[in-house]
Amino acid sequence: MSEYGDKLVTELIRKYYERADISEIAPDKIEQREFGFGVIGSKIANRHFAFKNATELKDYLVKNAPAFVDYSAAYYRFPDARPMEKKGWLGSELRFDLDASDPKYDCKIHSKDWLCDERLDAVKRDTLLLIEDFLIGDFGFSEQELRINFSGNRGYHVHITSDKVLQLDAAAREDLCNYIKPAKVSAYFLFPGLQAKGRRQQPFIGPKPTDPGWRGKFARAFIEKLSNLDSIASLGIKESIAKRLFKEKELVEMGIRNGNWGITRIPMKEIYWNSVIERIVWERSVYIDANVSKDPSHLMRLANTIHGGSGFVAKKLKGIADLEKFDPMKDAIAFKDGNVSIKAKTPYALRIGDSTYGPYSDQKVEVPTYVGVYLYLKGFADIIS
Question: What is the mean pLDDT of residues 159-185?
Answer without folding.
Answer: 96
